[in-house]
Amino acid sequence: MDTSLAPAPVHLGVLGISGLTAYFGLLDVGRPEPGQTVVVSGAAGSVGSIVGQIARIKGCRAVGIAGGPEKCAWLVDELGFDAAVDYKADDVADRVKELAPEGVDVFLDNVGGEILDAVLLHLARGARVVLSGGLSQYNASETRGPSNYLQLLGARASMIGFLTPDYAERYPQARRELAGWLREGRLVSHEQIVAGGVRAFPDALLKLYAGENLGKLILAVAVGDSGA
Ligand SMILES: NC(=O)c1ccc[n+]([C@@H]2O[C@H](COP(=O)([O-])OP(=O)(O)OC[C@H]3O[C@@H](n4cnc5c(N)ncnc54)[C@H](OP(=O)(O)O)[C@@H]3O)[C@@H](O)[C@H]2O)c1
User: Is a pLDDT exceeding 90 seen at residue 139?
Assistant: First the structure.
């Protein structure tokens, strides 16, 4: 870990797997072009918060989907997203239609389920739906598939999954570019560090599913802490 590049926690966020997932998922798989509209779900989480910022760096319009007014305000006011949809209060399909009247060009989906179905209704021609993850489905007893998948047909769109380790050979190049954007102040890294050591792991993990994190959630563990 090169701490001259950035402090250690940033190497778990923007310069770690979250930043790399955002980088390759958006740029290589989503292939956004300047002026296009990029929508990201789980937008106030670790990956999503970086996706929207990279979309802005690339000259796209960035719309985030997150839970609650505070998270939505954070995305717009602190991270520079163009707009945010509060999926807990808004009708997601209606708001996406309003915010992307020409349709969504790239949807980077971290959540799946109802949110994926809502965005599928408003795809631009040739849209790329990038499956990064399915947070709403990981603990579901029955997986909900996308019932609006036929929208891909009319939009001549594609839906594609990816795994970040497939890009391992290019991690150094991606890290250099991400670190450059951090240095230039074009990318904000946000880590939320919780104390408590190994014993606090279950509570820290549950925070992710309860939406209690902003950006990268990190559990601080002291050297020698075995949780015993
Ligand atoms: N493809 C790959 O190689 C790869 C690599 C790394 C990670 N991933 C995936 O990327 C996704 C995001 O990871 P992350 O580390 O950014 O997550 P994270 O920081 O843990 O973000 C979690 C956020 O997602 C939202 N969320 C949780 N459950 C939800 C639900 N049922 N419906 C809607 N939103 C929900 C919550 O925010 P709200 O308050 O907004 O609900 C929560 O704060 C995950 O699915 C992960 O598996 C993929």
Answer: no
Could you give phi then psi for residue 103, rounded to 5 degrees? 100, 160
Ligand 1 pocket, residues with Cβ under 6 angstroms: 17-18, 21, 42, 44-48, 66-68, 71, 110-111, 132-136, 162-164, 208-209, 211, 213
Bridge partners (DSSP) listed for residue 129: 107, 159
- Mean pLDDT of all residues in 1-6: 71
Q: Residue 66 has which token pair?
A: 């997150």
6-15, 101-110, 157-166: lowest mean pLDDT where?
6-15
- The preferred substitution site among 70, 85, 110 for testing ligand 1, maximizing ligand atoms within 8 Å of CB, is 110
Q: Report the predicted TM-score, pTM, of the whole model to 2 decimal places.
A: 0.94
Nearest protein CA to atom 39 of ligand 1, as residue: 211
Question: Please, are residues 167 and 24 in contact by the beta-carbon 8 Å criterion?
Answer: yes
Q: Are 197 and 187 in contact (CB under 8 A)?
A: no
